[in-house]
Design goal:
Strand content: under 5%
Shape: globular
Number of helices: 15
Largest sheet: none
Distance between the termini: 48 Å
Helix content: over 70%
Order of helices and strands: HHHHHHHHHHHHHHH
Protein backbone atom coordinates (compact mmCIF):
# COMPACT_ATOMS: atom_id res chain seq x y z
CA UNK A 1 0.00 0.00 0.00
CA UNK A 2 1.43 3.34 -1.01
CA UNK A 3 1.65 6.34 1.27
CA UNK A 4 -0.84 8.96 0.15
CA UNK A 5 -2.35 12.28 1.16
CA UNK A 6 -5.41 10.43 2.47
CA UNK A 7 -3.67 9.73 5.74
CA UNK A 8 -5.82 10.91 8.62
CA UNK A 9 -4.98 14.27 10.14
CA UNK A 10 -3.98 14.98 13.68
CA UNK A 11 -6.42 16.15 16.29
CA UNK A 12 -7.55 19.75 15.98
CA UNK A 13 -7.39 22.48 18.56
CA UNK A 14 -4.67 24.44 20.26
CA UNK A 15 -3.75 21.53 22.53
CA UNK A 16 -2.51 19.57 19.51
CA UNK A 17 0.18 22.20 18.97
CA UNK A 18 1.46 22.58 22.53
CA UNK A 19 3.81 19.59 22.57
CA UNK A 20 5.27 20.20 19.07
CA UNK A 21 5.82 23.85 20.01
CA UNK A 22 7.62 22.71 23.15
CA UNK A 23 9.87 20.52 20.99
CA UNK A 24 10.66 23.48 18.71
CA UNK A 25 11.39 25.66 21.74
CA UNK A 26 13.78 23.11 23.26
CA UNK A 27 15.50 22.62 19.88
CA UNK A 28 15.87 26.35 19.28
CA UNK A 29 17.26 27.11 22.74
CA UNK A 30 19.60 24.13 22.62
CA UNK A 31 20.88 24.88 19.13
CA UNK A 32 21.36 28.55 19.94
CA UNK A 33 23.48 27.69 22.95
CA UNK A 34 25.42 24.80 21.41
CA UNK A 35 25.69 25.80 17.75
CA UNK A 36 24.29 29.10 16.50
CA UNK A 37 25.89 31.54 18.94
CA UNK A 38 29.37 29.91 19.06
CA UNK A 39 29.50 29.52 15.27
CA UNK A 40 28.43 33.12 14.70
CA UNK A 41 31.36 34.30 16.81
CA UNK A 42 33.76 31.82 15.22
CA UNK A 43 32.91 33.13 11.74
CA UNK A 44 34.57 36.45 12.64
CA UNK A 45 37.67 34.57 13.81
CA UNK A 46 37.78 32.64 10.54
CA UNK A 47 37.43 35.82 8.49
CA UNK A 48 40.07 37.69 10.47
CA UNK A 49 42.71 35.01 11.06
CA UNK A 50 41.93 32.59 8.19
CA UNK A 51 42.07 29.81 10.77
CA UNK A 52 39.68 28.23 13.26
CA UNK A 53 42.30 26.44 15.34
CA UNK A 54 44.83 23.65 15.15
CA UNK A 55 44.40 20.19 13.70
CA UNK A 56 42.91 17.65 16.10
CA UNK A 57 45.26 15.07 14.56
CA UNK A 58 48.44 17.00 15.29
CA UNK A 59 51.10 15.71 17.68
CA UNK A 60 49.54 12.30 18.20
CA UNK A 61 51.31 10.04 20.73
CA UNK A 62 52.99 7.02 19.18
CA UNK A 63 51.60 4.60 21.79
CA UNK A 64 48.08 3.47 20.77
CA UNK A 65 46.58 3.57 24.28
CA UNK A 66 47.93 7.07 24.93
CA UNK A 67 46.68 8.15 21.50
CA UNK A 68 43.24 6.73 22.28
CA UNK A 69 42.90 8.56 25.60
CA UNK A 70 44.31 11.81 24.27
CA UNK A 71 42.06 11.88 21.21
CA UNK A 72 38.94 10.81 23.10
CA UNK A 73 39.51 13.54 25.69
CA UNK A 74 39.91 16.29 23.11
CA UNK A 75 37.06 14.95 21.00
CA UNK A 76 34.47 14.57 23.76
CA UNK A 77 35.33 17.95 25.29
CA UNK A 78 34.54 19.44 21.88
CA UNK A 79 31.24 17.65 21.25
CA UNK A 80 29.68 16.69 24.60
CA UNK A 81 27.13 19.52 24.61
CA UNK A 82 25.95 18.66 21.10
CA UNK A 83 25.86 14.95 22.00
CA UNK A 84 23.63 15.65 25.01
CA UNK A 85 21.37 17.82 22.85
CA UNK A 86 21.20 15.11 20.19
CA UNK A 87 20.04 12.46 22.68
CA UNK A 88 17.58 14.93 24.20
CA UNK A 89 16.02 15.81 20.84
CA UNK A 90 16.05 12.19 19.68
CA UNK A 91 13.96 11.19 22.70
CA UNK A 92 11.66 14.24 22.61
CA UNK A 93 10.81 13.79 18.93
CA UNK A 94 9.20 10.48 19.93
CA UNK A 95 6.97 11.94 22.66
CA UNK A 96 6.29 15.55 21.63
CA UNK A 97 5.80 15.40 17.85
CA UNK A 98 2.73 13.42 16.67
CA UNK A 99 3.75 10.47 14.55
CA UNK A 100 1.22 11.29 11.85
CA UNK A 101 2.78 14.75 11.49
CA UNK A 102 6.20 13.21 10.94
CA UNK A 103 4.81 10.73 8.44
CA UNK A 104 3.08 13.44 6.44
CA UNK A 105 6.37 15.33 6.06
CA UNK A 106 8.96 12.54 6.03
CA UNK A 107 7.04 9.28 5.65
CA UNK A 108 7.01 8.77 1.92
CA UNK A 109 9.87 7.07 0.10
CA UNK A 110 10.68 9.57 -2.62
CA UNK A 111 12.52 12.70 -3.67
CA UNK A 112 10.21 15.15 -1.92
CA UNK A 113 10.55 13.52 1.48
CA UNK A 114 14.32 13.19 1.02
CA UNK A 115 14.70 16.87 0.14
CA UNK A 116 12.64 17.88 3.17
CA UNK A 117 14.86 15.72 5.37
CA UNK A 118 17.94 17.49 4.05
CA UNK A 119 16.43 20.97 4.44
CA UNK A 120 15.30 20.32 8.01
CA UNK A 121 18.90 19.37 8.86
CA UNK A 122 20.40 22.73 7.93
CA UNK A 123 19.65 24.55 11.22
CA UNK A 124 21.06 21.61 13.21
CA UNK A 125 24.68 21.84 12.02
CA UNK A 126 25.61 18.73 14.04
CA UNK A 127 28.34 16.22 13.39
CA UNK A 128 27.20 12.79 12.20
CA UNK A 129 27.46 11.23 15.68
CA UNK A 130 25.50 13.97 17.44
CA UNK A 131 22.81 13.84 14.74
CA UNK A 132 22.59 10.03 14.97
CA UNK A 133 20.34 9.93 18.10
CA UNK A 134 17.87 12.29 16.43
CA UNK A 135 17.84 10.06 13.35
CA UNK A 136 17.29 7.01 15.57
CA UNK A 137 14.32 8.75 17.17
CA UNK A 138 12.91 9.65 13.76
CA UNK A 139 13.24 6.09 12.52
CA UNK A 140 11.40 4.78 15.58
CA UNK A 141 8.53 6.98 14.43
CA UNK A 142 8.63 5.23 11.02
CA UNK A 143 10.19 8.12 9.09
CA UNK A 144 11.32 6.89 5.66
CA UNK A 145 14.86 5.66 5.09
CA UNK A 146 15.59 8.37 2.51
CA UNK A 147 14.40 11.28 4.66
CA UNK A 148 16.21 10.01 7.76
CA UNK A 149 19.46 9.50 5.85
CA UNK A 150 19.22 12.92 4.21
CA UNK A 151 18.72 14.52 7.62
CA UNK A 152 21.69 12.59 9.03
CA UNK A 153 24.17 13.31 6.23
CA UNK A 154 23.10 16.91 5.55
CA UNK A 155 23.71 17.95 9.16
CA UNK A 156 27.53 17.82 8.82
CA UNK A 157 27.99 17.98 5.04
CA UNK A 158 25.77 20.99 4.26
CA UNK A 159 26.42 22.77 7.55
CA UNK A 160 26.15 26.49 6.60
CA UNK A 161 28.64 27.56 9.27
CA UNK A 162 31.23 25.03 8.11
CA UNK A 163 30.89 26.24 4.52
CA UNK A 164 31.53 29.81 5.69
CA UNK A 165 34.55 28.76 7.76
CA UNK A 166 35.86 26.77 4.80
CA UNK A 167 35.56 29.74 2.47
CA UNK A 168 37.51 32.03 4.77
CA UNK A 169 40.17 29.46 5.74
CA UNK A 170 40.71 27.27 2.67
CA UNK A 171 39.20 29.39 -0.10
CA UNK A 172 35.77 29.68 -1.64
CA UNK A 173 36.69 27.22 -4.40
CA UNK A 174 36.89 24.47 -1.77
CA UNK A 175 33.60 25.64 -0.26
CA UNK A 176 31.90 25.56 -3.66
CA UNK A 177 33.17 22.03 -4.33
CA UNK A 178 31.97 20.91 -0.91
CA UNK A 179 28.52 22.44 -1.50
CA UNK A 180 27.97 20.89 -4.94
CA UNK A 181 29.36 17.48 -4.00
CA UNK A 182 27.53 17.68 -0.68
CA UNK A 183 24.14 18.12 -2.32
CA UNK A 184 24.87 15.16 -4.60
CA UNK A 185 25.98 13.13 -1.60
CA UNK A 186 22.94 13.93 0.52
CA UNK A 187 20.32 13.44 -2.17
CA UNK A 188 21.98 10.73 -4.23
CA UNK A 189 23.11 8.48 -1.40
CA UNK A 190 19.78 8.83 0.41
CA UNK A 191 17.72 7.94 -2.66
CA UNK A 192 19.92 5.00 -3.62
CA UNK A 193 19.90 3.67 -0.06
CA UNK A 194 16.12 4.05 -0.06
CA UNK A 195 15.99 1.84 -3.13
CA UNK A 196 18.28 -0.70 -1.49
CA UNK A 197 16.01 -0.73 1.54
CA UNK A 198 13.07 -1.61 -0.75
CA UNK A 199 10.70 0.64 1.17
CA UNK A 200 8.99 2.51 -1.63
CA UNK A 201 5.72 1.61 0.04
CA UNK A 202 5.09 2.63 3.61
CA UNK A 203 5.12 -0.32 6.04
CA UNK A 204 1.68 -1.41 7.17
CA UNK A 205 2.74 -0.88 10.77
CA UNK A 206 3.28 2.81 10.01
CA UNK A 207 -0.11 3.13 8.34
CA UNK A 208 -1.74 1.49 11.33
CA UNK A 209 0.09 3.87 13.65
CA UNK A 210 -1.18 6.88 11.72
CA UNK A 211 -4.74 5.58 11.79
CA UNK A 212 -4.49 4.95 15.51
CA UNK A 213 -3.07 8.41 16.14
CA UNK A 214 -6.41 9.97 15.22
CA UNK A 215 -8.27 8.06 17.89
CA UNK A 216 -5.73 7.33 20.60
CA UNK A 217 -4.06 9.93 22.83
CA UNK A 218 -0.41 10.56 22.19
CA UNK A 219 0.49 9.73 25.79
CA UNK A 220 -0.81 6.09 25.60
CA UNK A 221 -2.07 6.43 29.17
CA UNK A 222 1.34 6.92 30.79
CA UNK A 223 2.64 10.08 32.40
CA UNK A 224 4.74 12.22 30.05
CA UNK A 225 7.86 11.99 32.21
CA UNK A 226 7.56 8.20 32.34
CA UNK A 227 7.30 7.92 28.57
CA UNK A 228 10.08 10.41 27.98
CA UNK A 229 12.35 8.72 30.51
CA UNK A 230 11.78 5.38 28.80
CA UNK A 231 12.59 6.78 25.34
CA UNK A 232 15.60 8.65 26.69
CA UNK A 233 17.07 5.57 28.31
CA UNK A 234 16.46 3.36 25.28
CA UNK A 235 18.11 5.89 22.99
CA UNK A 236 21.07 6.44 25.29
CA UNK A 237 21.70 2.73 25.83
CA UNK A 238 21.54 1.83 22.13
CA UNK A 239 23.80 4.67 20.94
CA UNK A 240 26.19 6.03 23.55
CA UNK A 241 28.20 3.01 24.84
CA UNK A 242 29.23 1.85 21.35
CA UNK A 243 29.95 5.47 20.45
CA UNK A 244 32.45 5.89 23.30
CA UNK A 245 34.17 2.55 22.68
CA UNK A 246 34.64 3.12 18.93
CA UNK A 247 35.92 6.68 19.41
CA UNK A 248 38.60 5.27 21.73
CA UNK A 249 39.47 2.61 19.15
CA UNK A 250 39.75 5.15 16.33
CA UNK A 251 41.80 7.43 18.55
CA UNK A 252 44.30 4.61 18.94
CA UNK A 253 44.12 3.70 15.24
CA UNK A 254 44.97 7.23 14.09
CA UNK A 255 48.61 6.30 14.76
CA UNK A 256 48.36 4.14 11.60
CA UNK A 257 45.42 5.71 9.75
CA UNK A 258 47.08 9.06 9.13
CA UNK A 259 50.64 8.68 7.87
CA UNK A 260 53.22 11.44 7.99
CA UNK A 261 52.31 14.04 5.37
CA UNK A 262 54.93 15.43 3.04
CA UNK A 263 55.32 16.53 -0.57
CA UNK A 264 55.31 12.92 -1.76
CA UNK A 265 51.59 12.75 -0.89
CA UNK A 266 50.57 14.28 -4.17
CA UNK A 267 47.50 13.79 -6.30
CA UNK A 268 47.88 10.11 -7.04
CA UNK A 269 44.71 8.02 -7.31
CA UNK A 270 46.04 5.72 -4.59
CA UNK A 271 46.21 8.49 -2.00
CA UNK A 272 42.84 9.92 -3.03
CA UNK A 273 41.10 6.56 -2.63
CA UNK A 274 42.95 5.67 0.56
CA UNK A 275 42.05 8.93 2.28
CA UNK A 276 38.45 8.73 1.05
CA UNK A 277 38.17 5.38 2.83
CA UNK A 278 39.92 6.60 5.99
CA UNK A 279 37.89 9.82 6.05
CA UNK A 280 34.63 7.90 5.83
CA UNK A 281 35.46 5.72 8.83
CA UNK A 282 37.20 8.24 11.09
CA UNK A 283 35.34 10.49 13.53
CA UNK A 284 35.85 14.22 14.10
CA UNK A 285 33.99 17.13 15.74
CA UNK A 286 32.05 19.58 13.60
CA UNK A 287 34.25 21.58 11.20
CA UNK A 288 37.43 19.84 12.41
CA UNK A 289 38.13 18.76 8.82
CA UNK A 290 39.05 22.37 8.00
CA UNK A 291 42.14 22.72 10.26
CA UNK A 292 43.07 19.10 9.48
CA UNK A 293 43.16 19.79 5.73
CA UNK A 294 44.74 23.23 6.22
CA UNK A 295 47.58 21.63 8.17
CA UNK A 296 48.05 18.82 5.66
CA UNK A 297 48.08 21.19 2.68
CA UNK A 298 50.77 23.25 4.38
CA UNK A 299 52.87 20.08 4.68
CA UNK A 300 52.63 19.29 0.98
CA UNK A 301 49.46 17.21 0.53
CA UNK A 302 47.89 17.51 -2.94
CA UNK A 303 44.46 19.07 -3.48
CA UNK A 304 43.03 15.70 -4.54
CA UNK A 305 43.51 13.87 -1.22
CA UNK A 306 42.60 17.11 0.60
CA UNK A 307 39.26 17.33 -1.20
CA UNK A 308 38.58 13.65 -0.51
CA UNK A 309 39.09 14.29 3.21
CA UNK A 310 36.96 17.44 3.13
CA UNK A 311 34.05 15.41 1.78
CA UNK A 312 34.36 12.21 3.79
CA UNK A 313 35.68 13.22 7.23
CA UNK A 314 32.47 15.02 8.28
CA UNK A 315 29.95 12.97 6.29
CA UNK A 316 29.63 9.79 8.34
CA UNK A 317 31.92 7.75 10.57
CA UNK A 318 32.27 4.26 11.94
CA UNK A 319 30.85 5.30 15.35
CA UNK A 320 27.80 6.95 13.78
CA UNK A 321 27.20 3.93 11.54
CA UNK A 322 27.24 1.65 14.58
CA UNK A 323 25.02 4.02 16.55
CA UNK A 324 22.37 3.56 13.86
CA UNK A 325 22.76 -0.21 13.52
CA UNK A 326 19.23 -0.73 14.89
CA UNK A 327 17.71 2.03 12.75
CA UNK A 328 18.81 0.81 9.31
CA UNK A 329 19.63 -2.59 7.87
CA UNK A 330 23.30 -3.56 7.41
CA UNK A 331 22.77 -3.41 3.64
CA UNK A 332 21.62 0.21 3.85
CA UNK A 333 24.50 1.26 6.10
CA UNK A 334 27.04 -0.51 3.89
CA UNK A 335 25.56 1.22 0.84
CA UNK A 336 25.85 4.61 2.53
CA UNK A 337 29.47 3.97 3.53
CA UNK A 338 30.59 2.75 0.09
CA UNK A 339 28.83 5.57 -1.77
CA UNK A 340 30.34 8.13 0.59
CA UNK A 341 33.80 6.74 -0.16
CA UNK A 342 33.03 6.85 -3.89
CA UNK A 343 31.84 10.46 -3.85
CA UNK A 344 34.84 11.41 -1.74
CA UNK A 345 37.22 9.85 -4.26
CA UNK A 346 35.42 11.46 -7.22
CA UNK A 347 35.54 14.83 -5.45
CA UNK A 348 39.29 14.40 -5.08
CA UNK A 349 39.68 13.69 -8.79
CA UNK A 350 37.53 16.70 -9.68
CA UNK A 351 39.65 18.87 -7.39
CA UNK A 352 42.81 17.79 -9.23
CA UNK A 353 41.31 18.97 -12.51
CA UNK A 354 39.53 22.14 -11.36
CA UNK A 355 41.45 23.39 -8.33
Amino acid sequence: MKFSSSLPGSSHGSSAWLKPLLFVLVAAIGLYYVKWSPYYLKSFVAADKHSIGGSILANAPTAPWSAALEYATVYFLAIWKAAVLGVLLGSLVQVLVPRDWLLRVFGRAGLGSTLRGGLFALPGMMCSCCAAPVVAGMRRQQVSVGAALAFWIANPVLNPATLVFMGFVLGWHFAALRLVAGVLLVVGVSLIAQRVAQTETLPQAALDAVAAAEYEPMDDGRHFLVRWGSKLWQLFWTTMPVYIVVVLALGAARVWLFPQVDASMGNSLLWIVALAVVGTLFVIPTAAEIPIVQSMLSLGMGVGPAAALLMTLPSISLPSLLMLRKSFTPKVLMTVALLTMLIGAVSGLVAVVLL
